[in-house]
Amino acid sequence: MSGATGYLKMSGNPFACECSNSDFQQWILNNSQTQVVDAHSYTCGYPLVKKGTRFLDFDFHSCWMDASFVCYVSSTCVIVLTILTSFAYRFLRLQLLYAYYLFLAFLYDAQKRKRGSPQRYDAFISYNVHDELWVYREMLPVLEGEQGWRLCLHHRDFLPGKAIIENITEAIYGSRKTICVISRRYLESEWCSREIQMASYRLFDEKKDVLILVFLEDIPAQRLSPYFRMRRLVKRHTYLSWSQAAQNPGLFWQNLRRALNTPDTDLCFN
């Protein structure tokens, strides 16, 4: 070798063709100070699968990948994923749950349309448990007893053992309309919020007059801000207030009957 100042002869030694010898192979090939005698005849002694192959032909490229760098990239990805997951759970949990429930509603609606399933109820009553007394004392005797509507209620008609969200979905899509009995506690309830969101999704998806709001008490407009699209719509269509019906409750029930009698006509969202 031109310019070599020394010689090294290692014939007869068993060379290991593994990552620990990658630097030695590079030294043989690239150094200009020492000539390694008969280096091209050196063969691998182990591992057994490489035995007999030439040491200088062994590909050490796979050994050049820095294991610490791989660990760094992997740990960084895990940390970033953990941070994003924590952020999504903390700030986007409700939105993600809402999207999930809407997806379930979409699947249920698609299956119902495909099967052509008939609707079992005239209306699903969505209410908070704190307003249950009003529903049973005031609403049911009139709507079911006097007017003869078929109503679906949580505690009476939901199937035991089935997931709550499945019961809600089937109740909303298995009824011609959904009556939401709105109060401050209703708006604070997570399950009631899901019911009204799913009902409003059906309203905007089908573009049918399928949602009736009954306000038990006067609620400031800002409390309804999460439902601004629905609020804008019902102000022009079906909107009933029990607190304003104290002087003439008969008119209230007459208006509710008229709303239930209204066919599922197409709505305009302009």
Comma- or semicolon-separated keywords:
rod-shaped; alpha/beta; disordered C terminus; 5-stranded parallel β-sheet; Rossmann fold; 270 residues; two-stranded parallel ribbon; single chain; 10 helices
Brief summary of the model shown:
This protein is of the alpha/beta class and 270 residues long. The chain has helices at 22-30, 67-91, 93-115, 132-146, 154-157, 164-173, 184-188, 190-206, 228-234, 249-261, and strands at 6-9, 15-16, 34-37, 44-46, 121-126, 151-152, 175-182, 211-215, 239-241.
Notes on the protein architecture:
The chain is α/β, with parallel strands linked by helices. It has two domains: 6-63, no CATH class; 97-261, Toll/interleukin-1 receptor homology (TIR) domain (Rossmann fold), CATH 3.40.50. The chain is built from ten helices and nine strands. The chain has helices spanning 22-30, 67-91, 93-115, 132-146, 154-157, 164-173, 184-188, 190-206, 228-234, 249-261, and strands at 6-9, 15-16, 34-37, 44-46, 121-126, 151-152, 175-182, 211-215, 239-241. The strands form three sheets. The chain has a five-stranded parallel β-sheet with strand order 6-5-7-8-9, sandwiched between helices. It has a two-stranded parallel sheet with strand order 1-3. Strand 5 (121-126), helix 4 (132-146) and strand 6 form a beta-alpha-beta unit. The longest helix is centred in the N-terminal third of the chain and has 25 residues, at 67-91. The termini are far apart.
